[in-house]
Design a protein that fits this description.
By secondary structure, this protein is an alpha/beta fold. The protein is built from 31 helices and 23 strands. Strands 8-23-22-21-9-18-20-19 form an eight-stranded mixed sheet, sandwiched between helices. Strands 10, 11, 12, 13, 14, 15, 16 and 17 form an eight-stranded mixed sheet that branches. Strands 1, 2, 3, 4, 5, 6 and 7 form a seven-stranded antiparallel sheet that branches. Helix 6 packs parallel to helix 11 and helix 29 packs antiparallel against helix 30. It is elongated, with a radius of gyration of 35 Å.
Length: about 900
C-alpha cells in the first residue's frame, strides 16, 4: 500500500497548486477550465481528449503493436551475435580467399529469421491471450456519454468526463465533485487510513485545510473507494497524470522487480551470462594457443557465446505462464497478472472471510425478536428503515432484511411514512451503521435515528431498553441478560445484531458518529448463513495440497466457531481482536501460527495478521471481495477476488474467480504448481545442458588438434534444442509434485547444475575417444597425425558429424530424465507434445548431416552402425543420470 505522507516522491508542486485552484473555484469555473459540460462528453470529444491527455492507465503505455513486436523479436542478443558471426565468417573466409561461396552466411541469416519469427509469433500469442483474459474481468465505470449513462471500462475515462459514483465504486481518476449525497469515501488505498471520510460537492476547503490536499471535501482522487452515498464528478486528470498516478506506477514497478519470481529469472540469466563469458574466453584462449589460429578461435568463441545466450528464456517462461493462465481460465480462475501464478502455486496459507466463501452466500433473516424474545413487526419495520435507506454496499444482511420485510410488511406504506434525512456509514471500529429518517405521517417532523450493529458495540452506546412498550433504563442486570440471550443464539449458529433508535438526535445536516449515543435498544435480528455443501470437501482438498486455511472475519467467536465445526476447520484455538491487543511481535508471530480462526477483526488487524504470516516465511494468498478487504489484499503475496466483487477488490486482485467456490481455487492452485514446475524444469534442463556442453568444449579444445565443432554447427544445434524446449510448457508435472506448495528456490540451481551437468560431459568424452581413436580413423584411413591433409578434412568433418548427432540426442533426452525422479520412459513419461517434439528434433538433427546441407554445414561421412553406438551411449547416460538422481534425492527433498 502507498503511504503518501511518507513517500519520497511528492506530487509535483504545480500540480498541487492546480488542485488547490480547482478545489476553491465553483463547479461552473471547473467545467469551463476543462471545456466540459455537466451533461458529459460526446464520443467524438472523448476520443479527442484521449489523444490530447492520454489514456487512463497508471502503468506506462505499452507499445504492443505488431511492428513493435517484430522489431523486438529480431533485435536480441542472440540475433546480434549471429549477425556478428556471419560478418566475421565473411571477412575471415570469403574476402581473403576471394571466394564467392556465401552459403554459410545465408544459413546464418536463415537461423536469424527462424529465431526471430518464433519469438514474434510467441509474443503476439501472449499479448492476445492476456488481453482476452483481462476483457473477461474488466472494471467498469458509469460515465455520462452522448447524453446517457453508460457502463464503460475504466481505461476509457478521459479528462472532461462526468462520472456517476455509488457505493462500492473505485474512483477511476482525479475528480472535482459536482454533486454529492451522503458521500462517504475510504482512502486506505492511498494513505492507509481506514475511517470513512465524508465528501461534499458544495463545500470548499477552509483556510486551515488549504495545504492538506488529501482532505479537500470536494476532491476525490484515483484509488479512493466509495463506502456509501452517491455523487457525480468531472475528471480533471487521468492515469499517470493523476496526483498519485506516478507514485502508484513507480511503487508497482518496485514491487514487480522485488518479487522472487523476477529476482529468480535475473539470477538465472546472470548465471548463464557469467558462464557464457568465462567459457567463451577460455575456449578462445585455449584454441588460439593450441591451434595457432586466432581468427578461427575468435569465431568459435562467438558461436559458443551465441549457444549459451539465454535467448529463449523469456519466451519459454512467458509461454509457460500464458498456457497456465489459459488452463486456469477454463477452470474459472482469471489471471490478471501473469507473475502472480508463481505465488499462487507457492502459497501455503490461504486467508479468507467466511461469508459467501464457506457459507452459501444466502443469508436469511430467521427471527426479528423484541427483548423478550418475541417476534414483533415493530423490530422488522425499524430494521427495514435501516437497511432500505442506507446507501452503502447493501450486503447479504441488508438484503435479507429487505426481503423479509417485503413478505411480512407493507413496505410501500413505510416508504410513504418515512423520508431519509441522513446516514452514518458502517466502519469496522464502531461496527454499527445508522440512518436518520423523518416521520411524515404521525408525529410530523420527528427525526428518528435507527442503528443496528454488533451486540457489544451497541451496548456501549445504549442507555435504555424498550420492554413491553415501555422505555426503561439499561441496568447491569438487563445488559447481562441481553448478552446471555445473544450468546445462546450465537451458539445455535445464528448471527445476531442488536437494533436501537434515538428520537430527534441532532439538527439536520449535522449528524455524525457522536449522535450514536443514548440509544434505546428495541430488539434482536438473527440471521442464518448456512455452510456450503462443498465447503468441507474443498477445505479437505486444500489441506491435502498443503494449504493451511485461516478464517479472518469480523463476526463473533460463537458463530464462527459453529461454522468451523460444520466445515471441518480446527476450532480448538480462536483468537479475537481483544486477544491480539497489547501483544509483542514475538507473541503475535506465535499466535498466528497456532490459530486458524480470527474473529471480530478490523481491516487493520487482517492486514497485520497477513504481514506476520509473511514475516514467518509463509507465502500468503488472500481471498476477498469487499471494500474492507483491499488493504489485506495488498499485504498478501497473491490477492484473489470474485467476478462480482466491488471495484476496489477486483482492481486489487491478481486472480479473479468466476464463482465463489473454493473448489475452483483449488484447481487453480494445482495448475499454478504445474506452471511453476515446468518453468523450474526448463531452468534445470538448460543449466544442466549448458554446463555439460561448456565443460566438454573446454576439454575438447585442450586435447583435440582441431576445433571441436564448427561455429555454424553450434548455432544450428542450439537453435534445434531451443525449439524443442518451447514444448516444455505443455508438459505435466507428476501428482506428487502438485500435492505440496513449492517455493521459488533458485538458490539450489547452481548445485543442481554442478551435480548433473558433468554427466553429459562424461558421455561426451567417451564419444570423443570413440570418434578420435576408432570411428574417424576407420573412415579417413588412419590416425589423424598419420594421414594426408585431404584425409584429415574427412577425419574432422566425420568427427563433427558424430559429436553433433550425439549432442542432439543427449540434449533432448535430458528433458525426459530431469522432469521426474522416476526412471524415464518406463515409470514416467512426458506428455504427447513433448515426446513428439523432442523425438522429431533428435531425428532432424540425425538426418541433417546426411542431407543436401551437409557440405555447407561442414559434415562428413558416418557409418550407419554409428546409430547403435549412439543408442548405447544414450542408455549409459540414462542409467548414470538415474543413479545420480537417487543419490541426489537422498540429501535433497525434491528434484524439480
Amino acid at each position: 500500500m502507498l503511504n503518501v505522507k511518507t513517500s519520497k516522491n511528492e506530487p509535483k508542486r504545480d500540480y498541487i497548486e492546480r488542485v488547490k485552484k480547482i478545489a476553491r473555484e465553483s463547479r461552473t469555473e471547473t467545467l469551463a477550465r476543462l471545456h466540459a459540460s455537466a451533461e458529459g462528453l460526446s464520443t467524438k470529444q472523448a476520443i479527442l481528449n484521449r489523444e490530447e491527455y492520454g489514456a487512463n492507465e497508471i502503468e506506462d503505455a505499452k507499445n504492443d503493436s505488431k511492428w513493435h513486436f517484430f522489431i523486438e523479436s529480431f533485435l536480441t542478443p542472440f540475433t546480434i551475435v549471429l549477425i556478428l558471426l556471419a560478418a566475421t565468417l565473411f571477412i575471415a573466409d570469403v574476402v581473403p580467399s576471394d571466394q564467392d561461396d556465401v552459403s554459410t552466411a545465408i544459413i546464418i541469416i536463415v537461423m536469424v529469421l527462424i529465431a526471430g519469427i518464433i519469438k514474434f509469433v510467441q509474443n503476439i500469442k501472449t499479448s492476445d491471450a492476456v488481453e482476452e483474459m483481462l476483457h473477461l474481468v474488466s472494471v467498469t465505470t458509469n460515465i455520462k456519454r452522448d447524453n446517457e449513462n453508460r457502463e464503460l471500462p475504466t481505461n476509457e475515462v478521459v479528462v472532461g468526463d462526468v462520472i456517476n459514483l455509488s457505493a462500492g465504486d473505485m474512483v477511476p481518476a482525479d475528480m472535482r465533485l459536482l454533486r454529492s449525497k451522503d458521500l462517504f469515501c475510504s482512502t486506505s488505498y492511498i494513505d492507509g487510513k481506514f475511517d470513512p471520510k465524508e465528501k461534499i460537492a458544495t463545500k470548499t476547503p477552509r483556510f486551515e485545510q488549504v495545504n492538506n490536499y488529501l482532505d479537500y471535501p470536494n476532491i476525490v482522487y484515483e484509488g479512493t473507494t466509495i463506502v456509501s452515498g452517491s455523487g457525480t464528478g468531472v475528471v480533471f486528470a487521468t492515469g499517470k497524470d493523476t496526483i498519485f498516478g506516478k507514485k502508484i506506477r513507480d511503487e508497482n514497478k518496485r514491487e514487480l522487480h522485488k518479487t522472487t519470481f523476477n529476482v529468480g529469472i535475473k539470477s538465472i540469466t546472470k548465471l548463464l551470462m557469467i558462464m557464457m563469458v568465462i567459457v567463451s574466453v577460455l575456449v578462445f584462449v585455449i584454441n588460439g594457443i593450441t591451434k595457432a589460429n586466432w581468427i578461427s578461435s575468435f569465431v568459435f568463441a562467438i558461436a559458443i557465446a551465441a549457444g549459451l545466450t539465454p535467448e529463449m528464456l523469456p519466451v519459454i517462461v512467458t509461454s509457460n505462464l500464458v498456457n497456465g493462465s489459459k488452463e486456469m481460465a477454463k477452470r474459472g480462475n482469471i489471471v490478471k497478472r501473469l507473475n502472480s501464478i508463481q505465488y499462487f502455486g507457492s502459497a501455503d496459507v490461504l486467508c479468507t472471510d467466511k461469508t459467501g466463501i464457506l457459507t452459501q452466500d444466502k443469508v436469511m433473516l430467521e427471527r426479528h425478536y423484541d427483548l423478550t424474545m418475541q417476534e414483533t413487526k415493530r423490530v422488522l419495520e425499524l430494521s427495514y428503515l435501516n437497511a432500505y435507506y442506507q446507501t452503502g454496499m447493501k450486503d447479504l444482511i441488508d438484503e435479507a432484511v429487505i426481503n423479509a420485510a417485503g413478505d411480512e410488511l407493507d413496505t410501500n406504506e413505510i416508504q410513504r411514512d418515512y423520508n431519509k434525512i441522513d446516514e452514518i456509514p458502517f466502519d469496522y471500529n464502531r461496527r454499527r451503521m445508522s440512518v436518520v429518517v423523518a416521520n411524515s405521517d404521525q408525529n410530523h417532523g420527528e427525526h428518528l435515528l435507527v442503528t443496528k450493529g454488533a451486540a457489544e458495540q451497541m451496548l456501549e452506546v445504549a442507555t435504555k431498553v424498550e420492554l413491553n412498550g415501555k422505555v426503561l433504563p439499561l441496568t447491569k442486570e438487563r445488559r447481562e441478560k441481553i448478552l446471555e440471550q445473544v450468546e445462546d443464539l450465537n451458539t445455535d449458529g445464528m448471527r445476531v445484531l442488536l437494533l436501537g433508535y434515538k428520537r430527534n438526535p441532532a439538527p439536520v445536516g449535522e449528524f455524525s458518529v457522536n449522535d450514536e449515543n443514548d440509544l434505546t435498544l428495541v430488539g434482536f435480528l438473527t440471521f442464518l448463513d448456512p455452510p456450503k455443501e462443498s465447503a468441507q470437501a474443498s477445505l479437505a482438498k486444500l489441506r491435502r495440497d498443503g494449504i493451511d486455511v485461516k478464517v479472518l472475519t469480523g463476526d463473533n467467536e460463537a458463530v464462527t466457531r459453529t461454522l468451523g465445526l460444520q466445515v471441518g476447520l480446527n476450532v480448538n484455538v480462536v483468537y479475537s481482536a481483544e486477544d491480539l491487543e497489547g501483544k509483542s511481535t514475538e507473541e503475535l508471530s506465535k499466535m498466528v501460527e497456532e490459530c486458524n480462526i480470527f474473529v471480530e477483526l478490523t481491516p487493520e488487524l487482517k492486514t497485520k495478521i497477513i504481514k506476520l504470516l509473511r514475516t514467518n516465511g509463509h507465502t500468503v494468498a488472500y481471498l476477498g471481495d469487499k471494500i474492507n478487504d483491499a488493504p489485506a489484499m495488498h499485504a498478501s503475496n497473491v490477492s484473489i477476488s470474485i467476478d462480482n466483487a466491488v471495484d476496489i477488490a477486483k482492481e486489487s486482485a491478481d486472480i479473479i474467480l468466476l464463482n465463489k467456490d473454493l473448489a475452483i481455487l483449488e484447481d487453480g492452485v494445482r495448475i499454478s504448481r504445474n506452471v511453476l514446475g515446468n518453468i523450474m524444469k526448463y531452468f534445470k534442463v538448460i543449466l544442466t545442458s549448458s554446463f555439460g556442453n561448456s565443460l566438454a568444449m573446454i576439454i575438447a579444445s585442450l586435447f583435440l588438434p582441431f576445433l571441436p565443432m564448427m561455429p555454424l554447427q553450434i548455432v544450428v544445434m542450439n537453435l534445434l534444442f531451443g525449439m524443442s524446449c518451447l514444448l516444455i510448457p505443455f508438459d505435466k508435472m507428476p501428482k506428487s509434485y502438485l500435492d505440496k506448495p513449492k517455493k521459488w528456490a533458485v538458490r539450489r540451481l547452481p548445485k543442481f547444475m554442478i551435480v548433473f551437468g558433468p554427466i553429459s560431459t562424461v558421455i561426451d568424452i567417451i564419444t570423443f575417444a570413440l570418434l578420435y581413436f576408432w570411428i574417424c580413423p576407420h573412415i579417413a584411413g588412419g590416425s589423424f597425425n598419420e594421414i594426408t591433409k585431404s584425409q584429415q578434412i574427412i577425419f574432422i568433418t566425420s568427427f563433427y558429424t558424430g559429436w553433433f548427432i550425439e549432442s542432439i540426442w543427449i540434449q533432448e533426452i535430458v528433458i525426459h530424465i530431469i522432469r521426474d525422479k522416476r526412471f524415464p520412459f518406463v515409470f514416467q513419461r512426458a506428455t504427447g507434445p513433448v515426446l513428439a517434439g523432442t523425438l522429431i528434433t533428435a531425428i532432424v538433427g540425425t538426418i541433417l548431416p546426411f542431407s543436401f546441407l551437409s557440405k555447407d554445414l561442414a559434415f562428413g561421412p558416418m557409418p550407419e552402425n554409428f546409430l547403435l553406438v549412439i543408442l548405447i551411449l544414450l542408455l549409459a547416460y540414462i542409467l548414470l543420470m538415474s543413479l545420480v538422481k537417487v543419490l541426489y534425492l537422498q540429501k535433497n527433498n525434491f528434484l524439480i
